[in-house]
Amino acid sequence: MAESTTATAAPAGPDAPSTPFKPANLALCTVGLALASFMQVLDTTIANVSLPTIAGNLGASSQQVTWVITSFAVSTAIALPLTGWLTRRFGETRLFVWATLAFSLTSLLCGLSQSMGMLVTARVLQGIAAGPMYPLAQSLLVSLYPREKRGHALALLSMVTVVAPISGPILGGWITDNYSWEWIFLINVPLGVIAALIVGTQLRNRPETTEKPPMDYIGLALLIAGVGALQLVLDLGNDEDWFNSDLIITLAVVSAIALTMFLIWELTEKDPIVDLKLFRHRNFCVGTLAMVGAFACFFSIGLLIPLWLNRDMGYTPLWAGLATAPIGILPVMMTPFVARYANRFDMRLLASLAFVIMGISCFMRSGFSLEVDYMHIAGVQLFMGLGTALFFMPMLHILLSDLDGREIASGSGLATFLRTLGASFSASLTTYMWSRRTEVHHAQLTEHISVYAPGVQQQLRTLGQGDPQRGAAIVENMINVQASQIAFNDILYVLGWMFFAMVILLWFARPPFGAGSGGR
Fold this sequence. Notes:
This protein is an all-alpha fold. The chain is 71% helix and 0% strand. Helix 5 (92-111) packs antiparallel against helix 7, helix 5 (92-111) runs antiparallel to helix 10 (188-202) and helix 16 (347-365) runs antiparallel to helix 17.
């Protein structure tokens, strides 16, 4: 049934009582919910600038260390469809408190990890705990505020979700530079305990009805098997030489069979864990595909830029965070105005403008060289922030516009699930393509160089101060960095065109775009 896809299907919807439950201190309760949401969203970006440091400390390659990001995103995505069922079974307050405490405990495990395998396992558990936190915070806030003030409550939560990803790289860089990477996870422990205590205490007497709804165990098992195997193919493919490996072939077959069975099962099941029938709505289908595609590109940029700054440009984690942070300045300033005035415009026009701006920012980065300065990098990030400010709200309006009241919560949950899943896949594909294109450009740059040529030997002696082997090592490093830079430019150029492709897709949606307007 529809409620099984997200916790926002809780009683806080349109039929909620006009006099909602009031905690002893509404402001304090709001702070607790916002703090937990901030902590959870923060963890989607806080590790980005620390990945090279983590890789060095745990002996992992630059591609393997992205598992720290993808494992969290995939497990969060898989946990999202369970939120509605868990809410009905245990209640919103209890589930939120448990999830927040579990997030703190798994953050502790991340900080104590001594190997890449242990860290990735802990991140999987952390992602499972994170899944219900944001939709529950949204649902609880809506239920606690009277109808006329719910917009203010959701605006606060929206502000948190904008500020947290901005703060992540800066905070992660500062912690890594001044302490150690483990503290980017350990910092969650006291924050999570405080947030859980506040919410648990303030909402202790909140009335809730629980039940024992049917659970789509087969759908869940197929989802985990299909998505998990596909993510392993993407993460392990390069190291295992792709389809020359029996392991990769086996995982690919398992993923294909499981996902095919999942689609068939969910379309015929009475109480599906993911309501795929929502794709019969034109605007939901078009809006979700555009949202997933654009967010995947956006997520790839957020992963790629800090890695490039650390690895090729020699930035410290803190300065990498400071260079990427300007992307959040305009969204913070513009969010209230977009929320207030966006309805005066065609949502397709606003979203198209957002995609064009983000596409242009990619083309600007595709012209970067190793000599690009900090202000230029930060300036492009600031410009892209204009597109980010116009992105999320119009897209949500479009994809929810032709759903009826009973389907809106399910549609929001399904779109969030696919968006999170798409982000994880894009992270794996981006790092793979960067590695692959670097190898290609390295081969092209070295094909006309022979270390046996007399002129080359003389240059190597000069660079190595009389030692040709030392000179050869210097040249090899220069070629590696240059090849990586050219590959970086290639990927950003492709991402730019992908944003423009999303513009074309958007205009297959049809107005009106008011949520639940019933258009087809």
